[in-house]
């Protein structure tokens, strides 16, 4: 039975991915920023699918958090087969009007947090069976977006991390890919009014927002043996937004 670690698993894409992998029979280590929500998710999935699910909480910007998660994986399973680096934060703001704290937080979580998580998991992944990593990037990190330059830059760092790690870790048998979601119906879009939501839908070729479950399906594919010759790819899950 495969073992997967998912960061940012208490909501949105991370929670949907945890559900999909548990459904497929993976044992899980789940991370959330706060302990209550991720523990609830862990209990739910363990009860529903009969897999072993352990949870840990903390700020992913702190490298001690991902170190603790890897220790949980080792203590409970002695190996790690799959890693989903999903924890992230979002903030929009025009250049010249974005606060210093916001800039620092975006990079601390999205860029440095992803790097810490991947780095701390590498040794245990090397003990896994057909190990694979998927990071959550964003279409803003690959194509840019006005009013989101700093967020886009933090996600562009994830793209660079993915491609470089794929080259570095490929010889060790570890595949590394990323998904780049478009406009997905999660709480990150809750700040949009009806006009803003309609604008996002109109700019998407498929004429609707995506769902967290649709992104989770792509993540599950990239982790699976069906994608065994796929590495270093940034897979857009955007309904044709970037066509």
TrEMBL record:
One of its GO terms (biological process) is fatty acid biosynthetic process. Pfam families: adh_short_C2 (PF13561). Transmembrane segments: none annotated. InterPro entries: KR_dom (IPR057326), NAD(P)-bd_dom_sf (IPR036291), Sc_DH/Rdtase_CS (IPR020904), SDR_fam (IPR002347). Residues 2-182 form the Ketoreductase domain. The keyword Oxidoreductase applies. Belongs to the short-chain dehydrogenases/reductases (SDR) family. This is 3-oxoacyl-[acyl-carrier protein] reductase. It comes from Actinoplanes teichomyceticus. The lineage of its organism: Bacteria, Bacillati, Actinomycetota, Actinomycetes, Micromonosporales.
